[in-house]
Amino acid sequence: MKKRVGLIGTGWYGKTDLMRLIQVAPVEVVSLCDVDSQMLQAAGELTASRQLSKKVPRLYKDYREMLKEKDLDMVLIATPDHWHALPMIEALQAGADVYVQKPTGVDVMESAAMVAAARKYGRVVQVGTQRRSTPHLIEAVNDIIKTGKLGRISHVEMCCYYHMRSKRTDPDTTPPATLDYDFWTGPAPLRPYNPMVHPRSWRAFMEYGNGIVGDMCVHMFDMVRWMLDLGWPTAISSQGGIYQDKASRANITDTQSATFTYGDLNLVWTHRSWGNAPDPDYPWAAILYGENGTLKASVKRFDFIPAKGQTIHRDFVSELEQYPGDRTEKDLEQHVAPAIRGHMKDLLRNIASRGKPVADILQGHISSASCILANLALKTGRTLHYDPDAAPGGVVKDDAESTALLARPYRAPWEHPDPAKV
Question: Is this prediction's pTM over 0.85?
Answer without folding.
Answer: yes
